[in-house]
Amino acid sequence: MRVPLSWLVEYVELEPNATPHDVMAELVKVGLEEEGAHGGDIRGPIVVGKVIEFVEEPQANGKTIRWCQVEVAPGVVNGIVCGARNFFEGDKVVVTLPGSALPGGFEIAARKTYGHVSDGMIASSRELGLSDEHEGILRLQTLGLDPEVGTDALELLGLNESAAEVNVTPDRGYCLSIRGIAREYAHASGVKFTDPISRVNPKQAAGFEVVVTDTAPIHGVQGCSRFTTLEVRGIDATAKVPGWMANRLKLAGMRSISIAVDITNYVMLELGQPLHAYDADKLVGGITVRRAQMGERLVTLDEKDRELHPQDLLICDQAGPIGLAGVMGGARTEVSETTKNVLIEAAVFDPISIARSARRHKLPSEASKRFERGVDREVGPYAAARVAQLLIELAGGELSGVGSSYSLNEPPVEIELPFTFASELVGVDYPNQQILDVLHQIGCELRVHDDAVAVTPPSWRPDLRHKTDLVEEVARLVGYDRIPVRIPVAPPGRGLTPRQQLRRRVLNGLSGAGFVEVLNYPFCSSEQNGAFSSVEAVALENPIQSDFPQLRLSLLPGLLSAAARNLSRGASSVALIEEGSVFLPAPAEPVLELPVGNARPSEEVLAALKAAIPVQPRHIAGLMFGDWIPQGPGQQPVQAGFPQALMAVEQVVRAAGLGHEIHQEPVQGLHPGRSARIMVLGTEIGLVGEVDPAIAQEYHLPRRIGVFELNLDALHQLAPSVLQASELRVMPAATQDISLVVSQDVVAGDLAAAISEGAGELLESIQVVDLYVGPGLPQGTKSVTFSLVFRAIDKTLTQAEASASRDAGVAVAAQKYGASLRS
């Protein structure tokens, strides 16, 4: 919410020369967050000038300029070059003199142009920041102004104003108005607050029919609780918007449109009540507030034809819908330059209904933002009267006496607050009188009895519904600094869960190995998901980006995108890891109609919602390309790929205290000959390999990219509850190498498993060190060389004992796979 200081000072007293930062410093005390300051980027000298005479001079480029003589102070005339042609001799204009600056850092200086020295500039509304439209030079008489020559134009037009911007939390919608901010400033600083509605007299009007037929309220609440209308006749819809109003709207973040629209926006910002102006002559009969019917459509003010939903609340006349209640009006009854008679609407709508319509139609607006947070149900008649007052003053209208007032009888809510509850909840000893003073200060009606007070919140605070809300107000206004700081004592016997411990070990180990952890968005395109999985993906009902309408089935697409960004920025060697959820389809059908927000769903509805939640296992994935070991003196570079991905997998599995098997087979999205599935205790937990070069090319990445992806949740389920440390062996080891000749279709891992089975417990480790296919071997065979390490627990092995263990392993390999020692 942006708050022009010149507007705020009308209702509270500010310190002389107060800045936006001074105002925000006070508002922070009562819980409003500081966002920033606006305005103040224009400086003088900028004065009122009078065009004495001008000469039109055609130029060689086809343009005609005016060489003007402009009186900028009594008796002082400056020569100014101007390209606009919409002003006349005798006009009062705004002159920016040398040394001044306009919005955007545009410095004004005397300069030679078109054969003259232009000593300043005659400004337009857009150049002064008063309007987005360029209608030529600003002629002050069109604003109804006739100031003296030399008058300070900054003060005259309010161009020296500034605004403070604060962030308003959803539960404090009353602060989306100058009225609400002024009240909060008074709470924070202790100055007197003048309520803007105290300066407005609501008008009595009748004769216009308004009917509310919301016969089937959504979530048990009727969509419209109040509806006030007031007619103003004979306005001049082309009247100029005063500079002070246009500048305040601009500082508040809204652009000036037309006199009628600007007045409704101005009053909305002032009082917090969204308003709408209809061209009364375009209305057919009275107004009905109802839900939409199947098949109905509405062309809104943004010229879009919208299909309406049966839960949309509509404003209708006898010819059909004329507005999407609380969100946006319809084009058919829009106020235009030919409008003479205006019907003003000030209504209060149900926040949940308005929020759903705004999101359903992707149509956020300043009105819906306020209705979603709750609007003061008593301010409508005052807001309508305030709009009528300004239309009469600025657009020449007059009240017709036609209007209406509909109000749903809603008894006020009374909250019982025991005096001791505030101290018990907050931990600060609040005296009873202090509690009463704070509640009275925010506008509550109080009825003290025994050891408690019955509190009726003011109409502008619909967020106060429970005694805890009242205590929050006491804590907020007395001061958060009064609440003591106590460091909680950590309960004994607690810490990271086994799942968290595994995650930490895995990430710490991979980070130490040279990987960089990243965090990617969980959204993918159908093509990205389809590249690595054939499972049907979970589609988003309302995706943030239309290009990524699905939740990810794998972490690899996100890693590939991150790698592509790094490569485009000059990182030629990349090693990334990510730990996060993937989303698999739920076993049950999705729930399309969500339960209402103010009632607990039934157990059946809760069960259906839980069953429709996608399955979300946690995965760990990695990607690497480029040089795993860079080139150095006496060191050739080692390119990252399949071997490094295998080492990362081994590190992850070992962190869980487990072993694994590698089943080499084709995997979707990976290189046909360099891919495998990872098995742990007979359960598949992931994949490893290199990305299919065709997919790598789509991401503009190198052909060789090592990847792995493991199901961390599945790994945790298989991991032992207590990790066992391996026995420390101190006896000397005996090493031997063997080369076995086998058929080319025998997997080296299976061959190693057979050797381990036969060699027994003396075999400490086995590792593949070489693979040979070529001359000297029978057709269709290969030679696999293993490095074997033998060690006994209690003695030093002899070579004979090691050889016997080796031969036993070779025998099992020969029995299972026909292996023979290579001669």
UniProtKB/TrEMBL annotation:
Q: Where is the TRNA-binding domain?
A: 40-154
The protein's superkingdom reads Bacteria
- Residues covered by the FDX-ACB domain: 729-822
Which keywords has UniProt assigned to this entry? Answer: Aminoacyl-tRNA synthetase, ATP-binding, Cytoplasm, Ligase, Magnesium, Metal-binding, Nucleotide-binding, Protein biosynthesis, RNA-binding, tRNA-binding
| Obligatory cofactor(s) | Mg(2+)
The residues that hold Mg(2+) are: 463, 469, 472-473
Q: Which GO terms describe its cellular component?
A: phenylalanine-tRNA ligase complex
User: Which NCBIfam families does this chain map to?
Assistant: pheT_bact
**For this protein, what is the EC number?**
6.1.1.20
Coiled-coil residue spans: none
Q: Does the keyword Lipid metabolism apply?
A: no
Q: Give the catalytic activity.
A: tRNA(Phe) + L-phenylalanine + ATP = L-phenylalanyl-tRNA(Phe) + AMP + diphosphate + H(+)
This protein's assembly is summarised as:
Tetramer of two alpha and two beta subunits.
Q: Where in the cell is it found?
A: Cytoplasm
**What gene, per UniProt, encodes this protein?**
pheT
Would you tell me the protein name for this molecule? Phenylalanine--tRNA ligase beta subunit
Indicate whether Transmembrane helix appears among the record's keywords: no
